[in-house]
Amino acid sequence: MGNPATVSMTLESPPLVCYGHPKDSTGALISGLLHLGIHTQSLRVQSFKMDLQAEILTRRPIAAHCPNCTARTEDIHTWTIISEPVTLVHGINSYPFSYIIPGNLPATNSNALGRIRYFLKAVALSAQGNEIRFSREIQISRAILPGPERHSVRIFPPTNLSAHVNLPHIVHPDGDFQLDIRLDGVMSPDKETRWKLKKVSWRIDESSKIISPSCSHHQSKLCGNGKGMLHEDVCTVGSGELKSGWKADYSNSGRIEMEIIAGMPAHMNAACDIESACGIKVSHNLVVEMIVAEEHCPKGTSNRLGTQVGAARILRMQFLLHVSARAGLGISWDEEQPPLYDNIPPGPPKYQTFIEGAVEPRESPPVYEGIPM
Questions:
Q1: Considering only CA atoms, which of 171, 55, 53, 57 is closest in space to residue 112?
Q2: pLDDT tens per residue, the chain (373 residues)?
Q3: Domain ranges, ordered by start, for the chain
Q4: CATH architecture group of domain 5-143
């Protein structure tokens, strides 16, 4: 015999996006309908509830084959829909639900060391002892709104070279971004030697950290309860190099300008930045390396002519990248409040009535301030 009832769900809220940093975010609003479909003529339901749960998984557990060391579940919110026994007739019974997801909750994340996922799990218990279960995974994202570009200056002693770099405020894990670099001090003060750029390479490193806790059966491996083991991992999620394509100006002090299109391809499955209380942290660094060689160029020679006189140098720069999900419209739930009834103006003017073929206005129409008649 099949199940006497089934549970389904209809989500009415937009994608769950928490805007801003965890300490400033107002969270995201989730709302929808939970449907309990009764297939028999009637069914006695003892209880019906739904939980919002977070599942934290570590890919390097203390005990490799222990499910309790690998994953743990935390309850965030519970909806008690039916708390007392009730008899439901054949058909679909719909129950609305809503909840404001806290803004400091870590977003859904999957990296080299761990994973955070969220589920809506509903359970209906019938009087005969049957459990009707339903589970649906939901995606919670965090988006940092774009801001002004970041400008950084790097100096490379003992040379006179300095690099001016423009970076975007926010980058996304599945898109490209532009990196502007200007290298100053290419010519020596005596105009006899110069630095010539040979190659530029860049890469984006994703650093992951996780604290793997132990279950009650494997506490002895960490010499105590409540302790965990820290794991770290660094992987490259984007890279590239240039051997040409920049502009060089060797007049006066000399400068080299270039534009680099960097990014993280979608197939690299880069994760967004996160730092949660459950022990998972993900950050990204952009590493740029420029190889320059010193050349001798006597006065009066062409800019393209030169003789290499010294060893090549590697100019290395490192920048912290803020990787976030796309903001979309960038409007949080608290800014989408519809107009209140007090904000609605009076009703439209009433229609005129006909009296013995003549048109006589019943009353003068109201006058709206600021609206031309």
A1: 57
A2: 568 899 999 999 889 999 999 998 999 999 999 999 999 999 999 999 999 999 999 999 888 888 888 999 999 999 999 999 999 999 999 999 999 999 999 999 999 999 999 999 999 999 888 899 999 999 999 999 888 999 999 999 888 899 999 999 999 998 899 999 999 999 888 778 888 999 999 999 999 999 988 887 877 777 656 678 899 999 999 999 999 999 998 887 789 999 999 999 999 999 999 998 888 999 999 999 999 998 888 765 545 566 777 778 999 999 999 999 998 877 888 887 666 666 666 666 665 555 555 555 555 556 666 666 5
A3: 5-143, 150-321
A4: Sandwich (2.60)
Tell me how far apart the alpha carbons of residues 92 and 131 are, in angstroms, rounded to a whole number: 17
Pairing of strands 140-143, 16-19: parallel
Dist CA 185 CA 158 (whole Å): 12
150-321 CATH fold: Immunoglobulin-like (2.60.40)
